[in-house]
Amino acid sequence: MSSSILIARNLSKVVPGTESDLTILDDVSFTLEKGASLAIVGSSGSGKSTLLGLLAGLDIATRGEVELAGQNLGTLDEDGRARVRAQHVGFVFQSFQLLESLNALENVMLPLELHGRDDARARATELLERVGLGHRLKHYPRLLSGGEQQRVAIARAFAAEPDILFADEPTGNLDTQTGQHVTDLLFAMNLERGTTLVLVTHDGRLAARCKQSIQLETGRMVELGTHE
Amino acid sequence: MSRLSYQRLAKLSFSYTLREARAGEVKTLFFAVLIAVLVSTAIGYFGARLNASMELRATEFLGADLVLRGSAPAQPAQIELGRAQGLSHSSVVEFSSVVATDERIQLAAIKAVDNAYPLRGELRSTASLNGLDQAGGVPGPGEAWAEARLLAALALEVGAEIEIGAQRFRLTRILTEEPDRGRDLYSLNPHVIINLMDLESTAVVQPGSRVRYRDLWRGDASSLNAYRAQATPDLRANQRLEDVRDGNRQLGGALGRAERYLNLASLAAVLLAGIATALSASRFASRRLDNSALLRCLGLSRRETALFYAAQLVTIGALASVLGALLGWLGQHALFALLKGLVPNDVPSGGLLPALTGMATGLVALIGFALPPLVALCRVPPLRVLRRDVLPTPPGLLFVYGVALLALGLIMWRLSLDIQLTVSLLGAGALAALSLGVVLLIALRTLRKALTNGPLAWRLGVGQLLRKPGLAIGQILAFGLIFLAMALVGLLRGELLQTWQAQLPENAPNHFVINVMPHERDAFTSEVHRLSPSASPLYPVVAGRLTAINGKPARANLEDDSQGERATRRDLNLTWSETLPPDNQLVAGSWWSSDQGNGVSVEENLAASLRLEIGDRITFDIGGATYEVPVTSIRTVEWNNFQPNFFMIFKPGTLQDVPVTYMTSFYLPSSDESGALALVKQFPTVSILPVEALLDQLREILAQVTLAIEFVLLFVLAAGLSVLFAALQATIDERLHQDALLRALGARKQLLITARRSEFLVVGAISGLLAALGCELATYFLYRHTFGLEWSPHPWLWLLPIVSALIIGGAGLVGTRKALTTSPLTVLRET
């Protein structure tokens, strides 16, 4: 059995423009092993988030294919891709994406309940304690600081024990110090749970903590590096 | 990992709904449905209970709930059918016969009744002319009860013997009130009641005699309906089933209008709640676009997301419906408690039906108005978690409006507005909304050009509308509909009350006079006018039979048992008059001029049933002489006014040398009853029929209807105002966001207030204008086709634009004050 969890083959994304078609991602290929970490870096508009969307099965490529956890996403319909996400994928977003009407505990319970887990409450409490928010279980997102909201989001991302975690600019909305704490937490939990991590960032220090990195420029992959 | 079962997903959705109950949009949606159900249930109960109570009183006019009427005895199977339904039964046989004493004879209306008679109302009688009357009982075998005027006509006293046919009877009591007398207000002969067991021995009823058989039924509504449904297909040509509406014109009209008004008011209330549901459902959906994308991201399929949100809506709808129905039920109870003393104590409970239909109405409104936003919600691409600008493909317009129209149509149909009316109202409404939308779009575009160099506050305020004209038009139409619904219900209330007051003024005639002989005419006229200056003129009355139309037998080509066919089987009361009676109106032909020959004016419905047109020649047999006369006009008659009314009015001079008596009606205060007695003594052959009891019954019923209508109007106005605020709330998010942004950029409060004021004033004024226009159109249609009222323009409606501009302007400013009082950062983070 292959040890690769994510394979991208000649990925391209073209969207219709006002005058002619616009290529926002052009011929990107790489392979990621289980438990590895990959940073996708590049300036604004370089196609980072587009690539992340394609890799996570949130969007479909115009050309090329993505194989996630052994499944070729291009051959699946949206519901099929949703199943793959449900079984293998966790997310952390720049804007946290917490449900405003649910408190911290309920937000973390959400994916567990969607998976039909009976121990959702206990497991979510445990995870929130792990991210240092055991005393904030009943707090609503608007009463939490940005750093705290992102820690709730990280707890939620790990709740369903995903094989691979996609993080889109996880520190983009946080100050340097808070961002540092959140990054530490993300990597620590990644290590503890043996999760594969793919993150999009333009923070060089964050990228340097990943074992691999991809540099994008105007949709093209200009560098595929490895770090020790 | 196993997938979620649908059951588990629904359960999860339920628990999330409860967790999200704090969210503003969930509350708004909940309250919109709650109001829809509360108002429908309360009006439903109020209307149904009051209606049942009114009908209960009204059935007394009929002596029963339902009557099977025929010119031959009912079939045993027809009677068995009613008994099988558990209905109480009573038989009545009516015919005209001569009542004879040893010296004199008098034609009388005989009614043979069984011991169960009457099933509704009371038969009242007295033992002596000046004695107190009592309720109850029927004549025993060998006994007859007669009206006082029979005693006067035959110079009899109680205890005397009379003959009807081959049977002798002892006059044991004097009849003072018969419950089913209302329909025979115009009958000329004195009434006599005997026991049904004596009928055969009179030998009066022979094959071919003119006899009316009435089988009276009483029971609960469902059994009556079942009986009606089963019996109707097997009715013979000479049989009819009648309830109180068919049996009494005055009441039928009032009850029918009241019921239609209550239905229209419920419809207005449901429409209001529907608008609130649509707006809050749309807000519910737009605030969940991110959440929906997140759920998809977390692995829910489109179908599962749809189920998740549908279950949320069903949860909200079900909870709001149950609570709304409960509150509606409690509300109408509180109302009846408040009205204690004004309404009868024995108001029927109303059953479960109004609550169930109230809940169904709320749920149908929810599905109809919330389904389109829900569909949009399920189409959110998961990519939205990364790119907020990604929006779901909106469902087709046909789907959005089709579903809403279908829901509205279902509700309207449920409220018994018939299918043709439902379709035409919906069609006209959709067409009007479409054309108004286009006009508004053009107007807004013109406004945009005009404002290019206008003040900043106006550009900001009205610009808000111009940026998304589709949304602005939707809002204006919604507000317009809210004002339209309220104005319509208010307007109709006024008209109906006015009509009823006009129908039954304080001094409505309460005495009918018949049998005034020609030689008594002048003396009687002056005496009556002395007692009652407002008495109607004396109309000549001649009994005549319609025998031919255009030379052919009158009955040929007429539908069996139609009004026209029945009119050919009995003598009609004919009259002549120089002038058109005050409450009559010509609909065809012209009133006679002096140089014109003979002619007759025919009542509109009878003319239609007889298929008469202007110029047709109709033949009457009057006392053996034949008169052929052309139809010169067709006119409407106000049957509800308690004045002498006639199907046929001849040109004076057309009928020559015919036996004539005169009739009139007049008002006498009940304190002046001695005046009527004096009149009876002075003119012993004249029959004076007091109808005060009938009028009192009618007044009591109309007072209840009025009460119902007043309270229903209050319900609708309260619902309208709360919906207005809910609707404003639902459209306010974006305005809050923009205001916060402007404040962050340094705009002063005054600028924002002026901008908001300009925007809401424009929205309010245009909505009011639409409401005024719509209201005039709708009343024009409804007055003519549903309520049978005269329509004329309502100038005060044109105050609506000002009123609505003030209300929406004020409410809008209050609603958006948060943007002025809270820090811009807080608002920006929250919206």
TrEMBL record, chain A:
<keyword id="KW-0067">ATP-binding</keyword>
<dbReference type="InterPro" id="IPR003439">
    <property type="entry name" value="ABC_transporter-like_ATP-bd"/>
</dbReference>
<dbReference type="GO" id="GO:0005886">
    <property type="term" value="C:plasma membrane"/>
</dbReference>
<protein>
    <submittedName>
        <fullName>ABC transporter ATP-binding protein</fullName>
    </submittedName>
</protein>
<keyword id="KW-1003">Cell membrane</keyword>
<dbReference type="InterPro" id="IPR003593">
    <property type="entry name" value="AAA+_ATPase"/>
</dbReference>
<keyword id="KW-0813">Transport</keyword>
<dbReference type="GO" id="GO:0016887">
    <property type="term" value="F:ATP hydrolysis activity"/>
</dbReference>
<dbReference type="GO" id="GO:0005524">
    <property type="term" value="F:ATP binding"/>
</dbReference>
<dbReference type="InterPro" id="IPR027417">
    <property type="entry name" value="P-loop_NTPase"/>
</dbReference>
<comment type="similarity">
    <text>Belongs to the ABC transporter superfamily. Macrolide exporter (TC 3.A.1.122) family.</text>
</comment>
<keyword id="KW-0547">Nucleotide-binding</keyword>
<dbReference type="GO" id="GO:1902495">
    <property type="term" value="C:transmembrane transporter complex"/>
</dbReference>
<feature type="domain" description="ABC transporter">
    <location>
        <begin position="6"/>
        <end position="228"/>
    </location>
</feature>
<dbReference type="InterPro" id="IPR017911">
    <property type="entry name" value="MacB-like_ATP-bd"/>
</dbReference>
<dbReference type="Pfam" id="PF00005">
    <property type="entry name" value="ABC_tran"/>
</dbReference>
<keyword id="KW-0472">Membrane</keyword>
<keyword id="KW-0812">Transmembrane</keyword>
<dbReference type="InterPro" id="IPR017871">
    <property type="entry name" value="ABC_transporter-like_CS"/>
</dbReference>
<dbReference type="GO" id="GO:0022857">
    <property type="term" value="F:transmembrane transporter activity"/>
</dbReference>
From TrEMBL, chain B:
<keyword id="KW-1133">Transmembrane helix</keyword>
<feature type="transmembrane region" description="Helical">
    <location>
        <begin position="396"/>
        <end position="415"/>
    </location>
</feature>
<feature type="transmembrane region" description="Helical">
    <location>
        <begin position="421"/>
        <end position="444"/>
    </location>
</feature>
<feature type="transmembrane region" description="Helical">
    <location>
        <begin position="707"/>
        <end position="728"/>
    </location>
</feature>
<feature type="transmembrane region" description="Helical">
    <location>
        <begin position="264"/>
        <end position="285"/>
    </location>
</feature>
<keyword id="KW-0472">Membrane</keyword>
<feature type="transmembrane region" description="Helical">
    <location>
        <begin position="29"/>
        <end position="48"/>
    </location>
</feature>
<protein>
    <recommendedName>
        <fullName>ABC3 transporter permease C-terminal domain-containing protein</fullName>
    </recommendedName>
</protein>
<feature type="transmembrane region" description="Helical">
    <location>
        <begin position="795"/>
        <end position="815"/>
    </location>
</feature>
<dbReference type="GO" id="GO:0005886">
    <property type="term" value="C:plasma membrane"/>
</dbReference>
<feature type="transmembrane region" description="Helical">
    <location>
        <begin position="471"/>
        <end position="492"/>
    </location>
</feature>
<dbReference type="Pfam" id="PF02687">
    <property type="entry name" value="FtsX"/>
</dbReference>
<keyword id="KW-0812">Transmembrane</keyword>
<feature type="transmembrane region" description="Helical">
    <location>
        <begin position="351"/>
        <end position="375"/>
    </location>
</feature>
<feature type="transmembrane region" description="Helical">
    <location>
        <begin position="760"/>
        <end position="783"/>
    </location>
</feature>
<dbReference type="InterPro" id="IPR038766">
    <property type="entry name" value="Membrane_comp_ABC_pdt"/>
</dbReference>
<keyword id="KW-1003">Cell membrane</keyword>
<dbReference type="InterPro" id="IPR003838">
    <property type="entry name" value="ABC3_permease_C"/>
</dbReference>
<feature type="domain" description="ABC3 transporter permease C-terminal">
    <location>
        <begin position="264"/>
        <end position="374"/>
    </location>
</feature>
<feature type="transmembrane region" description="Helical">
    <location>
        <begin position="306"/>
        <end position="331"/>
    </location>
</feature>
<feature type="domain" description="ABC3 transporter permease C-terminal">
    <location>
        <begin position="711"/>
        <end position="823"/>
    </location>
</feature>
